[in-house]
Amino acid sequence: MVSKTGKSNKRYAESEIGTIRKDCRECIRIALVYPNKYQVGMSSLGFQTVYHLLNNIEDVACERSFLPDETSSPGAGITTIESGRPISDFDVIAFSISFENDYPNLLTILYKAGIPLHSGDRGIPHPLVVAGGVACFLNPEPISSFIDCFLIGEAELMLPKFIDCLDNNISRRSLLKNIVRKVPGTYVPAFYETTYNKDGTICSFEPLLDVPDNIRRTYLEDLSRVSTRSSIITPHTTFDNTFLIETGRGCPHGCRFCSAGYVYRPPRFRSFPVIAKCLDQGVLLTDKIGLVGAAVSDFPSIKELYDYVNNKDIRISFSSLRADSLCPELISLLRRSKVKTATIAPDAGSERMRKVINKGITEEEILNAAEALVAGGIPNLKLYFMIGLPTETMDDVEAVIELCKKIKHQFLESSRIKKRIGGITVTVNSFVPKPFTPFQWVAMDDERTLKKKIKMIKDGLKRVANVRVHADIPRWAYIQAIFSRGDRKVSEILTLANKNHGNWAQTLKETPINPDFYALRERSLDELLPWDFIDHGVRKSFLKQEYKKALDGKETAPCPMKSCNVCGVCKKEG
């Protein structure tokens, strides 16, 4: 392992791990851009991984850039952290996009960088603008007007082939055709045309050239072939000086609201020797290790991990915990790591709703988990719930309040034994339907209904001691739903929002496009959806079946993580 303090903006202190910096005239220069602030972008393990992968490809020099702070001077443009060069001077601008709500920031960055917003308006002097990340895996259409090329798949397989195709001596159109031909998972929006029915739904999505009808995502079958861990450690992130390690991708539980459980199928975990090697690298730099994944507490080698770090001065944190996966070793590991707050996501208050969403945990398991965590020396709890889920009634919202009170009672009993009472933080998020999930067809609750439900929960818990309630803003959830399920027309809304300097009230009032059509409308099961051209391997018939089972309150067993023909991924991928 190579460890060094790299050249960086004076505002940031960074330790770089095994990333090869290059600055040569012959190199392909890539500006890797995260469309949010530095602190958010550097908390993204995916962003750091792409940075590391690119800089370890021969003849590639990659530098990072982020959405500038409000304090930045108006004429400063968009520059990189490493050299301070404008991103418009680079050969490629590569956006790493994790969240749909960052779509407006993408336009802000292009505008401030002096680059034409729309792909069709760019020419030879301008960099090639590409994008990847989980938001692009789901539905790239709302930003398709602004991106030359999407990479839909996992970076470890796609980036080397993409770099091999780059050639400044041919036209942009020829370059893009070459990339599509040689890099599976590449989507060039300009090579496709969408037509619409009179009611605004999509009539057809057809290629204009000899390119694939569908874009099949690429994925790494054996994660143990590579390690995914922090390439830079900095105190200026959500995870202060923490070395992040990815334990796996995907989740076997199949919660029907969660896109990660479907677009990352089949679920894959790394072998323990690979994780142990990453741990050895991390402890040379910091005593804080963060394990990352959609189902970290399901990591098959959790007991081996406990034995490995038991006598070492390491503090381990987990990105996610399931109430039914809390073994004694895991709780002991959290206590030894001086973790003060553990997070449990019941997601719904009633048993009925947890069956609808296929959560797969019972109230008894939730209560036992709360008791075990506090008894195990973790004084504080965070609870995550969603409102606005399909078939939800006000009784189900009331059940959130009642479950929180039961958890508080269990929490209090264990706290009295420990003679130390902590606090419970309840976070309430509005449900947003996501592509490639069984709920991709459902209508979202309107803002008024969501606000009513949030108020009901806050009022129901405001007199409960040591319990705090935080809720998201329904307006932003509504805007996220527009991006999540929008088609190419949504680019017009984004362009208008950029013109209005992010004033969304004005934008939604002025736009000739009806945003409710995307956020609040229930889809028919036979409708052609904007993202249907992407093939993640999961059969649409399987998602329909899961949707119908949800409406009937029936559960589905977790993915067995071995070859079967239930969802279609294993059969399609051979």
How is this fold's topology laid out?
Blueprint: E1 3-4, E2 15-17, E3 28-34, H1 38-41, H2 45-55, E4 60-66, E5 92-96, H3 103-112, E6 128-132, H4 134-138, E7 149-151, H5 155-165, H6 172-182, E8 186-187, E9 192-196, E10 202-207, E11 215-216, E12 232-233, E13 243-246, E14 248-249, H7 260-263, E15 268-269, H8 272-282, E16 288-292, H9 302-309, E17 315-318, H10 328-336, E18 341-347, H11 351-356, H12 363-375, E19 380-387, H13 394-418, E20 424-430, H14 447-461, E21 467-471, H15 474-485, H16 490-499, H17 504-510, H18 516-519, E22 534-535, H19 540-551, H20 569-572
Parallel strand pairs: 3-4, 3-5, 5-6, 6-7, 11-22, 13-16, 16-17, 18-19, 19-20, 20-21
Antiparallel strand pairs: 1-2, 2-12, 7-8, 9-10, 14-15
Helix pairs in contact: 2-5, 3-16, 9-10, 12-13, 13-14
What characteristics describe this protein?
about 575 residues; alpha/beta; pyruvate-formate lyase- activating enzyme; 2 domains; 6-stranded mixed beta sheet; 4-stranded parallel beta sheet; 22 strands; globular; disordered N terminus
Count of individual helical segments: 20
How are the strands of the biggest sheet laid out side by side? 4-3-5-6-7-8
The CATH class assignment of the largest domain is: Alpha Beta
Q: CATH homologous superfamily name of the largest domain?
A: tm_1862 like domain
Task: Say how many strands there are.
Answer: 22
Ends distance? 36 Å
Mean pLDDT: 92
Q: What overall geometry do the principal axes of the alpha carbons give?
A: globular
Number of domains: 2
Helix content: 25-40%
Radius of gyration: 24 Å
Structural class assignment:
alpha/beta
Instruction: Enter the CATH topology name of the largest domain.
Output: pyruvate-formate lyase- activating enzyme
